[in-house]
Design a protein that fits this description.
It is built from 13 helices and 35 strands. The protein has about 700 residues and is an alpha+beta fold. It has a seven-stranded parallel β-sheet with strand order 17-18-16-19-21-22-23, with helices on both faces. It is globular. It starts with 5 loop residues before the first strand and ends in a 6-residue tail after the last helix. The relative contact order is 0.11.
C-alpha cells in the first residue's frame, strides 16, 4: 500500500529521528544524489518524503517550514505548480535544496510532484550558529545578570507580529528589527534551544558584535589624499575632464557623524541627525571618510596646505551621513528610498577578538543583508563598498587579548589569509583592501586578505589606505590609515563612473553590478618592483587573495563607459548569450569581466570550502573563443593554497569572472555568457569588454526582462 503524507497547516515539532548521513545507492543508471550542505551537517537523505512521525501538528493557522531537495534545478513551471498548491520556495540550500513553506494541506508524494527527491524538517541544530552550538553566548552579548542578546532570523513569509508574540513567549524583549531579522534580549541562554524548536524560526546567532571602524592609527599630518588621487588616476582624469567630479551622485556614508560644518562639505552634506544617538557629536572617523569620498579641499590652504590639496575624489557628489549602529540595515531604506542614495560606503566591520575567531570571513546574517541591499532590496540596485578589515596582523580590536589572536602570525610579512570580516565576505558588495602610496602600490601590512570561508575571492579591488590625510571635525585635517581609508576612495571613484554612465546612456538609472564590473575590468594589476621580496607572491599575473583584481583606475574606468563596451543582459538556465569582438593586429590583450548579483545565501548553508561547499547559487560561466576556435577560460584561485598564482579554468565559486588573453590573434573573437546552473532562475548580469563589441550594444532595458529589473 502506498503511504501518503498530508502536510498540515501547522507549526511543527522536530523529533529526534536522525536523517541519513551515508549516501544511499541510487537506482541503476541514475547519477548519485548530491548532498544537502547545511552548516550543521552535510548529508544525502534517502529519497522520498520524510516519515509522518517527523511532523507533529500543534496549532493550525500557520505555515509549516520544510527542507525540500529536488532532482534537478527547479523549472519555472514546477515552481508555479508548487505555488498553486501552497508551497513557496524561500531560500536556496546547496545542493538542489530549498527552505520552503507549506501553507495548506498538500500530498507531496503525488505523481505531479515527482521532481521532488526528498522532503523533511530542519533539525534544531540546523538553526543554530556554530558559535552558539560550540560554546556559550559571546561575552559582548551576555549581561552580568545572565541575560543574553540574540539575533533571530524568521523565515521570509512569517508575519512579524506573530514573530514578536513568539519572542515574547520566551521572555524576549525586542531591541531592533530589520526585515525578518530581529535582535532581542532573553532571560537566559536556555532560550536558544526553545527558539530553535519553533517552526517560524530559521536561524539564531549571537547578538550583533561591536562594530569597529576599520582604521589602525592616527599618524602625523602629511600629504595624503593628494598622493592617493595620483595613484588611482583621479588626478589624471580630472585634469583631462575637469567636470569629472561626481556631480549629482548621492553617497550614503554609514559611519560616525560627519562634521557638517567643515568647509570642505559646503552645500553638499546632509547629516541625518534624527538617526544618531541623542547628543552625538561630530566624529573624526566619519568626517575623515566623508572627506575622502567627496571633500572639496577648500580649507586646505588655510590649514597649511596648497589650494584644494586635501580634497577627496568625487567632490561634486552629494553626501549623506548615517550612523552604522544597530539599525544600520533598516536605515538603508531611508538612504535609498527617501534620499535616493546611489552608493553605500561602509568603513567598518565585525569584532576581532580571541573570542570571535569563528566569525571571521564567514557568511553571516549581516552578509546576507548586505547582498540583499546591493541586489535591490530597497527598490534599486546600488553600489555597496565595504572595508576588508585590518586584521592581517592578528591584533585584537579590544586591545586586551594577547597578540596575535586566532593562530595568526605576527611576523612580517603577515601571511595571514582568511582574515576578512563577515561583512566583507558578502558576495555582491565591493570589498576593498588597502595599499601604500608608493611606486609599486604595495599592499599595506594591515590590510585583510581572503579567501572567504567558502573559498571565494576577496577583496575585489584595492586603493590607497596608508597615511591618508582628510578632513577632521573643526575645519582641519588629520591622518589615518586602514581599509577604512581605502573604501571611501573606491566609493568616490564609483561616483565618478556613475556620473559618466548617466551621461553616456542618458538615464539616471544604473545597475550596481555594472559599476562593479567597470572597476574590476579596468583595475591595474599590481607589479612588483622587487623592493619587497617577502610579498612578491601577490604580484603574480591575475587576481589574488591579497589585492583582488588590483588597484582601481578612475581614468580607465571612466573611459570604459561606452555603448560598445558594456552589455547588460540576462540569461536563463543552460542558455547562452553570445557576442563578437573584432581584434585588430597589435592589440595587447583581450579582456572581459562578468559580474552579477547572486541571490543572497542563507546563513543555514554550508560555510567551508574544505567540505566542498560553495555559496554561489546562480552559476554563470564566461569564456572567450579566439579565431582558431581555442577557448580561453577565467582566472581561478585555489583557496586550499591561497598563496599560489592564479590559473585558468571553470569558476564555480564567484559572482565575478574575468578572462584575459594576452597577445591575441587578430580576427573575430566570440564572448559567451552561459547560464551553467541557475538554481534560482534567470540571472541578470553586466559584461564589460576590451576591445569593443563588433556591434554597439543598446541600453540596459533592451536586455533586462522586466522581472529582473
Amino acid at each position: 500500500m502506498r503511504t501518503f503524507l498530508i502536510v498540515c497547516v501547522c507549526l511543527i515539532v522536530l523529533t529526534s529521528s536522525p536523517l541519513a548521513h551515508a549516501a544511499p545507492q541510487p537506482p541503476d543508471g541514475e547519477p548519485p544524489a548530491p548532498a544537502i550542505q547545511l552548516r550543521s551537517r552535510i548529508f544525502v537523505p534517502e529519497a522520498g518524503v520524510a516519515a509522518a512521525s517527523n511532523l507533529r501538528a500543534l496549532a493550525p493557522g500557520a505555515a509549516t517550514h520544510l527542507l525540500l531537495q529536488f532532482k534537478d534545478v527547479v523549472r519555472a513551471e514546477q515552481r508555479a505548480l508548487l505555488a498553486e498548491n501552497g508551497v513557496a520556495l524561500l531560500g536556496y540550500i546547496p545542493q538542489n535544496a530549498w527552505l520552503a513553506s507549506v501553507a495548506r494541506p498538500v500530498d507531496l508524494t503525488a505523481p505531479q510532484f515527482d521532481f521532488i527527491r526528498w522532503a523533511g524538517p530542519l533539525q534544531p541544530a540546523d538553526k543554530i550558529s556554530p558559535a552558539l552550538r560550540e560554546g556559550t553566548v559571546g561575552a559582548w552579548a551576555t549581561d552580568a545578570d545572565g541575560r543574553v542578546t540574540l539575533q533571530v532570523l524568521f523565515f521570509a513569509d512569517v508575519d512579524m507580529a506573530a514573530a514578536a508574540a513568539l519572542l515574547a513567549a520566551q521572555g524576549g524583549s525586542v531591541i531592533q528589527r530589520s526585515g525578518a531579522l530581529v535582535v532581542a534580549q532573553f532571560p537566559s541562554a536556555a532560550a536558544i534551544q526553545a527558539l530553535a524548536a519553533l517552526d517560524p524560526v530559521q536561524w539564531i546567532d549571537n547578538g550583533p558584535a561591536p562594530r569597529y571602524p576599520r582604521d589602525t592609527n592616527r599618524g602625523p599630518l602629511g600629504p595624503a589624499n593628494d598622493g592617493a588621487r595620483g595613484r588611482t588616476g583621479v588626478n589624471a582624469l580630472q585634469s583631462a575632464v575637469p567636470d569629472a567630479i561626481g556631480t549629482g551622485v548621492k553617497v550614503a556614508i554609514f559611519d560616525g557623524m560627519v562634521d557638517a560644518g567643515h568647509p570642505d562639505f559646503t552645500g553638499r552634506i546632509t547629516v541625518v541627525t534624527d538617526l544618531f544617538a541623542p547628543g552625538a557629536a561630530a566624529n573624526d572617523h566619519g568626517t575623515h571618510v566623508a572627506g575622502t569620498v567627496g571633500g572639496d579641499g577648500r580649507n586646505s590652504e588655510g590649514r597649511g596646505g596648497t589650494p584644494n590639496q586635501w580634497r577627496g575624489v568625487a567632490y561634486g557628489a552629494n553626501l549623506f551621513s548615517f550612523p552604522n549602529d544597530g539599525a544600520f540595515f533598516g536605515n538603508h531604506q531611508n538612504a535609498i528610498v527617501t534620499r535616493g542614495a546611489d552608493i553605500s560606503s561602509n568603513s567598518w566591520g565585525g569584532n576581532f577578538t580571541a573570542a570571535t575567531c569563528n566569525t571571521h570571513n564567514n557568511y553571516s546574517a549581516d552578509s546576507q543583508q548586505m547582498d540583499q541591499i546591493a541586489a535591490g532590496a530597497y527598490t534599486k540596485r546600488i553600489v555597496v563598498s565595504v572595508a576588508a578589515s585590518n586584521f592581517r596582523g592578528g591584533q585584537s580590536d579590544n586591545q586586551q587579548d594577547q597578540s596575535p589572536i586566532c593562530n595568526y602570525s605576527d611576523q612580517a610579512p603577515f601571511l595571514n589569509y582568511a582574515s576578512l570580516s563577515d561583512l566583507g565576505s558578502a558576495k555582491n558588495i565591493i570589498t576593498v583592501g588597502a595599499t601604500k602610496k608608493n611606486a609599486a602600490d604595495s599592499m599595506a601590512d594591515f590590510s585583510s586578505w581572503g579567501p572567504t570561508k567558502d573559498g571565494r575571492l576577496k577583496p575585489d579591488v584595492v586603493a590607497p589606505g596608508d597615511s591618508i590625510q582628510s578632513p577632521f571635525p573643526g575645519g582641519g585635517y588629520g591622518t589615518q590609515s586602514g581599509t577604512s581609508m581605502a573604501t571611501p576612495h573606491v566609493s568616490g571613484v564609483a561616483a565618478l563612473v556613475i556620473q559618466r554612465y548617466r551621461t553616456v546612456f542618458q538615464t539616471q538609472q544604473f545597475r550596481g553590478e555594472t559599476i562593479k564590473a567597470l572597476l574590476i575590468q579596468t583595475a591595474r594589476d599590481l607589479v612588483s618592483d622587487n623592493s619587497e621580496p617577502l610579498t612578491a607572491q601577490y604580484y603574480r599575473p591575475g587576481p589574488d587573495f591579497a589585492s583582488g583584481y588590483g588597484i582601481v583606475d578612475a581614468q580607465a574606468a571612466w573611459n570604459a563607459v561606452a555603448v560598445n563596451r558594456i552589455l547588460e543582459g540576462a540569461v536563463a538556465h543552460q542558455a547562452v548569450v553570445t557576442r563578437t569582438l573584432v581584434v585588430t593586429a597589435g592589440v595587447g590583450s583581450v579582456k572581459a569581466t562578468l559580474v552579477w548579483n547572486d541571490p543572497a545565501s542563507q546563513p543555514n548553508s554550508c560555510d567551508s570550502f574544505t567540505t566542498g561547499c560553495t555559496l554561489l547559487i546562480n552559476n554563470l560561466d564566461l569564456e572567450l573563443e579566439d579565431p582558431n576556435g581555442a577557448i580561453h577560460q577565467p582566472w581561478i584561485l585555489n583557496p586550499a593554497t591561497p598563496g599560489a598564482a592564479a590559473t585558468r579554468g571553470v569558476d564555480n565559486r564567484n559572482a565575478v569572472e574575468q578572462v584575459q588573453a594576452d597577445t591575441p590573434e587578430a580576427g573575430t573573437w566570440i564572448v559567451r555568457v552561459r547560464g551553467a546552473n541557475l538554481a534560482a532562475g534567470p540571472q541578470a548580469f553586466a559584461l564589460v569588454v576590451d576591445p569593443p563589441f563588433a556591434t554597439p550594444q543598446l541600453a540596459q532595458k533592451v536586455f533586462l526582462p522586466a522581472i529582473l529589473r
